[in-house]
UniProtKB/TrEMBL annotation:
Domain Elongation factor SelB fourth winged-helix residue range list: 353-398
A Gene Ontology term for the protein's cellular component: cytoplasm
Protein name, entry field: Selenocysteine-specific translation factor
Source organism superkingdom: Bacteria
Keywords: GTP-binding, Nucleotide-binding
């Protein structure tokens, strides 16, 4: 069947009463239902008065008649014989593709007002007289594929859109679209943020997020000069809780590739950031490490360290975190910090013991640490956590 012809279609599982005037039959995922449409609208020169903003009209699209409000985007009114940009806000959902023709008629009494072309088949809600909106609609009107893709990604914001949605928005399902997307990527005007879902975002939003992230890290380093960096989770929750994880990860990778930030394990910092301790802080840091190393498997808590070294607990916590970030000590639970070297030695001893025994109890574990139950239980739980051991009853065995 060709355009303009009638044909019969056998639809399985549907009753005649379920099919309404204006329904569209299309392949799955080839159209998007919408309550809004953007287009160009020309008012007939024979109409007696201008079309005013928010006029309720009868929109005739395909075989459907839908009540809709005509929101004029670039004019206060469209005079007879003139053309303007319009967003239709529909009383019921419909589907369309760019280039589809439509006609509008007055609500009452009924007579034809004008018609036009669909430019965007599923737009966001626009505010009137916005230069960027008008610029985007002009780009869509040209029919240029590159301009259309950039326009749709610009309107999509931080959410971005998938390749399939771009196909629908541009009414282009050919290989030309894929080639154009590749060209725009090479020009770095758009970015592919998820290869599995083929999800794209406009360069503008990558640059915006990057600028916010760098500014936040500058402030963070100035506020916390003794911290090596901030965790990824904390950075996202404080700065960009509203964006998807895949976009956050892409921006981190993007900035790391440009050598603007450094990611070490789970910490993020500016590449220019280095910790500069004064002489007093450096001495205190060395004392803390010495105390923890000497205490072996029975280290003092941060509060006890503050009393021992006659300093405030906040400074102790900052330096403990710095030593942790440097990999010199390991934090186990809230109040236990162990020398990394000693902990690795204990791990080797425990592994050797378990290779020649059926398991190890807390009492037997004490022969390896010479520490009290207060420290031994958290240590055993730590080895469970790093998946070295598995608890079976009151014993631990190798995984």
């Amino acid at each position: 069947a060709f355009a303009g012809q009638r044909t019969a279609v056998n639809l399985q599982g549907l009753e005649k009463e379920e099919i309404q005037r204006g329904n569209v039959l299309a392949p799955s995922d080839s159209l998007l239902p919408t309550f809004m449409l953007d287009g160009t609208l020309e008012i007939l020169s024979s109409v007696s008065k201008p079309l005013k903003n928010r006029t309720l009209v009868r929109l005739h699209l395909h075989t459907a008649e839908i009540l809709a409000y005509a929101i004029l985007l670039d004019k206060e009114e469209i005079k007879p014989g003139e053309t303007g940009y319009v967003q239709f806000r529909l009383r019921q959902p419909t589907v369309a593709l760019p280039g589809d023709r439509f006609v509008i008629r007055s609500y009452s009494p009924i007579f034809t007002l004008g018609g036009g072309d669909i430019l965007h088949p599923a737009p966001v809600k626009h505010k009137r007289f916005r230069p960027q909106v008008i610029e985007d609609l002009k780009a869509l009107e040209t029919g240029n594929l590159e301009k259309a893709i950039l326009c749709h990604l610009n309107q999509a914001g931080y959410k971005g859109i998938s390749r399939q949605t771009i196909r629908i928005f541009t009414n282009n399902f050919s290989e030309t679209l894929d080639h154009t997307l590749e060209t725009l990527q090479k020009k770095q005007r758009i970015y592919l943020i998820n290869k599995d879902t083929h999800h794209y975002i406009h360069r503008r939003y990558i640059e915006e997020i990057s600028k916010k992230m760098v500014s936040f890290l500058n402030t963070f380093h100035a506020t916390h000069p003794l911290l090596l960096g901030i965790s990824k989770d904390e950075l996202k929750s404080k700065l960009l809780p509203f964006i998807r994880d895949e976009l956050f990860g892409f921006v981190l990778h993007y900035l790391e590739g440009k050598h603007i930030i450094v990611i070490e394990q789970n910490l993020v910092r500016l590449s220019s950031h280095t910790i500069r301790l004064n002489k007093e802080e450096q001495i205190l840091k060395e004392k803390i490490y010495h105390v923890l190393h000497t205490a072996q498997y029975s280290p003092p808590s941060p509060q006890e360290l503050a009393k021992m070294l006659k300093t405030n607990p906040e400074k102790i916590m900052h330096l403990l975190r710095l030593l942790t970030e440097e990999g010199k000590i390991i934090r186990i639970k809230e109040d236990f910090y162990f020398d990394t070297t000693l902990l690795n030695t204990l791990k080797e001893k425990l592994t050797t013991y378990l290779k020649t025994h059926q398991g190890i109890t807390p009492a037997e574990f004490k022969t390896l640490t010479n520490a009290s139950r207060k420290y031994n239980i958290p240590l055993l739980e730590y080895f469970d956590h790093i998946k070295l051991t598995l608890r079976v009853g009151d014993k631990r065995v190798l995984r």
